[in-house]
Amino acid sequence: MDRGLALSALVAIPGLAALFHLLARSGLRPLDVCLLGLSAYWLLLVIGLGRGGWSLRLRVPPISIALACLLPALLLAAFALPALSRLSPHVLAVVALAAALNGTLEEAFWRGALVPRLGPGDRGKAVVPVLLFALWHLAPATALAKLDMPGGAAGMILGAALLGALAMVARLGSGSAGFPALCHVLVNLATFGILAATNGRPALP
Protein backbone atom coordinates (compact mmCIF):
# COMPACT_ATOMS: atom_id res chain seq x y z
CA MET A 1 0.00 0.00 0.00
CA ASP A 2 1.20 3.50 -0.80
CA ARG A 3 1.28 4.99 2.69
CA GLY A 4 1.70 8.56 1.45
CA LEU A 5 -1.45 8.31 -0.66
CA ALA A 6 -3.31 6.57 2.17
CA LEU A 7 -2.37 9.39 4.56
CA SER A 8 -3.37 12.00 1.97
CA ALA A 9 -6.75 10.28 1.56
CA LEU A 10 -7.27 10.15 5.32
CA VAL A 11 -6.52 13.88 5.58
CA ALA A 12 -8.71 14.74 2.58
CA ILE A 13 -11.83 12.94 3.87
CA PRO A 14 -12.67 15.49 6.62
CA GLY A 15 -12.03 18.33 4.17
CA LEU A 16 -14.41 16.78 1.65
CA ALA A 17 -16.98 16.21 4.40
CA ALA A 18 -16.73 19.92 5.32
CA LEU A 19 -17.12 20.88 1.65
CA PHE A 20 -20.23 18.72 1.24
CA HIS A 21 -21.62 20.16 4.49
CA LEU A 22 -21.07 23.76 3.33
CA LEU A 23 -22.54 23.03 -0.09
CA ALA A 24 -25.58 21.37 1.51
CA ARG A 25 -26.18 24.54 3.59
CA SER A 26 -25.72 26.86 0.62
CA GLY A 27 -29.28 26.60 -0.68
CA LEU A 28 -28.27 24.70 -3.80
CA ARG A 29 -30.43 21.79 -4.89
CA PRO A 30 -29.23 18.47 -3.39
CA LEU A 31 -28.23 16.97 -6.73
CA ASP A 32 -26.20 20.08 -7.55
CA VAL A 33 -24.49 19.73 -4.17
CA CYS A 34 -23.59 16.15 -5.08
CA LEU A 35 -22.24 17.12 -8.50
CA LEU A 36 -20.12 19.97 -7.14
CA GLY A 37 -18.81 17.91 -4.22
CA LEU A 38 -18.02 14.97 -6.48
CA SER A 39 -16.22 17.28 -8.90
CA ALA A 40 -13.87 18.38 -6.10
CA TYR A 41 -13.39 14.73 -5.10
CA TRP A 42 -12.59 13.73 -8.70
CA LEU A 43 -10.01 16.50 -8.92
CA LEU A 44 -8.30 15.16 -5.79
CA LEU A 45 -8.35 11.63 -7.25
CA VAL A 46 -6.72 12.88 -10.46
CA ILE A 47 -4.01 14.61 -8.41
CA GLY A 48 -3.43 11.40 -6.46
CA LEU A 49 -3.26 9.39 -9.68
CA GLY A 50 -0.52 11.70 -10.94
CA ARG A 51 1.90 9.69 -8.84
CA GLY A 52 1.42 6.70 -11.19
CA GLY A 53 1.79 3.01 -10.38
CA TRP A 54 -1.73 1.90 -11.29
CA SER A 55 -3.31 -0.20 -14.01
CA LEU A 56 -6.79 -0.22 -15.49
CA ARG A 57 -6.13 -2.95 -18.06
CA LEU A 58 -9.23 -5.11 -18.38
CA ARG A 59 -8.00 -8.40 -16.95
CA VAL A 60 -10.79 -10.74 -15.95
CA PRO A 61 -10.29 -12.45 -12.58
CA PRO A 62 -11.17 -16.15 -12.04
CA ILE A 63 -14.80 -16.81 -12.98
CA SER A 64 -16.11 -17.18 -9.41
CA ILE A 65 -14.61 -13.82 -8.43
CA ALA A 66 -15.79 -12.18 -11.66
CA LEU A 67 -19.36 -13.38 -11.06
CA ALA A 68 -19.29 -12.27 -7.41
CA CYS A 69 -18.30 -8.76 -8.54
CA LEU A 70 -20.39 -8.49 -11.72
CA LEU A 71 -23.70 -10.08 -10.70
CA PRO A 72 -24.60 -7.55 -7.95
CA ALA A 73 -23.73 -4.73 -10.36
CA LEU A 74 -25.95 -6.21 -13.10
CA LEU A 75 -28.83 -6.85 -10.67
CA LEU A 76 -28.65 -3.28 -9.39
CA ALA A 77 -28.51 -1.95 -12.96
CA ALA A 78 -31.58 -4.05 -13.87
CA PHE A 79 -33.40 -2.72 -10.78
CA ALA A 80 -32.57 0.84 -11.87
CA LEU A 81 -33.83 0.46 -15.46
CA PRO A 82 -37.30 1.95 -14.74
CA ALA A 83 -35.66 4.99 -13.10
CA LEU A 84 -33.19 5.37 -15.96
CA SER A 85 -35.99 5.18 -18.52
CA ARG A 86 -37.73 8.17 -16.89
CA LEU A 87 -34.72 10.46 -17.34
CA SER A 88 -34.53 12.93 -20.21
CA PRO A 89 -31.68 12.31 -22.69
CA HIS A 90 -29.48 15.14 -21.40
CA VAL A 91 -29.94 14.12 -17.73
CA LEU A 92 -29.21 10.49 -18.68
CA ALA A 93 -26.03 11.73 -20.40
CA VAL A 94 -24.96 13.56 -17.21
CA VAL A 95 -25.72 10.44 -15.15
CA ALA A 96 -23.73 8.21 -17.54
CA LEU A 97 -20.78 10.63 -17.61
CA ALA A 98 -20.75 10.96 -13.81
CA ALA A 99 -20.97 7.17 -13.42
CA ALA A 100 -18.11 6.59 -15.86
CA LEU A 101 -15.90 9.25 -14.25
CA ASN A 102 -16.61 8.19 -10.69
CA GLY A 103 -16.28 4.43 -11.25
CA THR A 104 -13.10 4.73 -13.30
CA LEU A 105 -11.35 7.30 -11.09
CA GLU A 106 -12.29 5.56 -7.85
CA GLU A 107 -11.01 2.18 -9.01
CA ALA A 108 -7.85 3.71 -10.50
CA PHE A 109 -7.13 5.34 -7.13
CA TRP A 110 -8.55 3.06 -4.41
CA ARG A 111 -7.72 -0.27 -6.10
CA GLY A 112 -4.89 0.97 -8.33
CA ALA A 113 -2.57 3.74 -7.20
CA LEU A 114 -3.19 3.09 -3.50
CA VAL A 115 -2.16 -0.57 -3.85
CA PRO A 116 0.09 -0.65 -6.96
CA ARG A 117 1.89 -3.90 -6.19
CA LEU A 118 -0.86 -5.88 -4.51
CA GLY A 119 -1.00 -9.57 -5.39
CA PRO A 120 -3.13 -12.60 -4.49
CA GLY A 121 -1.04 -13.25 -1.35
CA ASP A 122 -1.52 -9.71 0.01
CA ARG A 123 -5.07 -10.00 1.36
CA GLY A 124 -4.10 -8.51 4.74
CA LYS A 125 -2.74 -5.37 3.05
CA ALA A 126 -6.05 -4.90 1.23
CA VAL A 127 -8.10 -4.26 4.37
CA VAL A 128 -6.99 -0.67 5.04
CA PRO A 129 -7.74 0.57 1.48
CA VAL A 130 -11.23 -1.01 1.65
CA LEU A 131 -11.86 0.70 5.01
CA LEU A 132 -10.61 4.04 3.68
CA PHE A 133 -12.90 3.71 0.65
CA ALA A 134 -15.91 3.11 2.91
CA LEU A 135 -14.81 5.95 5.21
CA TRP A 136 -14.68 8.41 2.30
CA HIS A 137 -18.42 7.86 1.80
CA LEU A 138 -19.07 9.62 5.10
CA ALA A 139 -18.19 12.86 3.28
CA PRO A 140 -21.16 12.91 0.85
CA ALA A 141 -23.46 11.52 3.55
CA THR A 142 -24.11 15.14 4.56
CA ALA A 143 -25.55 15.92 1.14
CA LEU A 144 -27.47 12.67 0.97
CA ALA A 145 -29.40 13.57 4.12
CA LYS A 146 -31.50 15.84 1.89
CA LEU A 147 -31.91 13.30 -0.90
CA ASP A 148 -34.58 10.67 -1.36
CA MET A 149 -32.50 7.51 -1.72
CA PRO A 150 -33.23 3.87 -0.87
CA GLY A 151 -31.23 3.00 2.23
CA GLY A 152 -30.15 6.59 2.82
CA ALA A 153 -26.62 7.50 3.88
CA ALA A 154 -26.20 4.33 5.97
CA GLY A 155 -27.15 2.21 2.97
CA MET A 156 -24.64 4.08 0.83
CA ILE A 157 -21.81 3.52 3.32
CA LEU A 158 -22.63 -0.18 3.78
CA GLY A 159 -22.97 -0.57 0.01
CA ALA A 160 -19.60 1.12 -0.48
CA ALA A 161 -17.98 -1.26 2.02
CA LEU A 162 -19.44 -4.27 0.19
CA LEU A 163 -18.54 -2.89 -3.25
CA GLY A 164 -15.05 -2.01 -2.03
CA ALA A 165 -14.49 -5.51 -0.66
CA LEU A 166 -15.74 -7.21 -3.85
CA ALA A 167 -13.72 -4.84 -6.04
CA MET A 168 -10.59 -5.51 -3.99
CA VAL A 169 -11.08 -9.27 -4.33
CA ALA A 170 -11.40 -8.79 -8.10
CA ARG A 171 -8.29 -6.59 -8.05
CA LEU A 172 -6.36 -9.28 -6.19
CA GLY A 173 -7.60 -11.97 -8.55
CA SER A 174 -6.84 -10.10 -11.79
CA GLY A 175 -3.83 -7.94 -10.90
CA SER A 176 -5.58 -4.89 -12.37
CA ALA A 177 -8.31 -2.43 -11.42
CA GLY A 178 -9.89 -2.64 -14.89
CA PHE A 179 -12.54 -5.28 -14.19
CA PRO A 180 -13.56 -3.71 -10.84
CA ALA A 181 -13.87 -0.38 -12.70
CA LEU A 182 -16.34 -1.92 -15.14
CA CYS A 183 -18.47 -3.27 -12.26
CA HIS A 184 -18.18 0.04 -10.40
CA VAL A 185 -19.40 2.06 -13.40
CA LEU A 186 -22.49 -0.18 -13.64
CA VAL A 187 -23.22 0.30 -9.92
CA ASN A 188 -22.79 4.07 -10.24
CA LEU A 189 -24.99 4.20 -13.34
CA ALA A 190 -27.76 2.52 -11.34
CA THR A 191 -27.39 4.56 -8.15
CA PHE A 192 -26.88 7.91 -9.87
CA GLY A 193 -29.84 7.17 -12.15
CA ILE A 194 -32.08 6.40 -9.18
CA LEU A 195 -30.91 9.58 -7.44
CA ALA A 196 -31.61 11.70 -10.51
CA ALA A 197 -35.01 10.12 -11.14
CA THR A 198 -36.23 10.45 -7.56
CA ASN A 199 -34.78 13.87 -6.75
CA GLY A 200 -35.41 15.91 -9.87
CA ARG A 201 -33.20 17.27 -12.62
CA PRO A 202 -29.81 18.73 -11.69
CA ALA A 203 -29.25 22.32 -12.76
CA LEU A 204 -25.80 21.63 -14.17
CA PRO A 205 -25.88 20.50 -17.83
TrEMBL record:
InterPro entries: Rce1/LyrA-like_dom. It is an enzyme of class 3 (hydrolase). One of its GO terms (molecular function) is peptidase activity. The chain crosses the membrane at residues 27-50, 62-81, 151-170, 177-197. The keyword Transmembrane helix applies. GO terms for biological process: proteolysis. Its EC number is 3.4.-.-. Residues 91-189 form the CAAX prenyl protease 2/Lysostaphin resistance protein A-like domain. Keywords: Hydrolase, Membrane, Protease, Transmembrane, Transmembrane helix. This is CPBP family glutamic-type intramembrane protease. It comes from Paracoccus broussonetiae. The lineage of its organism: Bacteria, Pseudomonadati, Pseudomonadota, Alphaproteobacteria, Rhodobacterales.
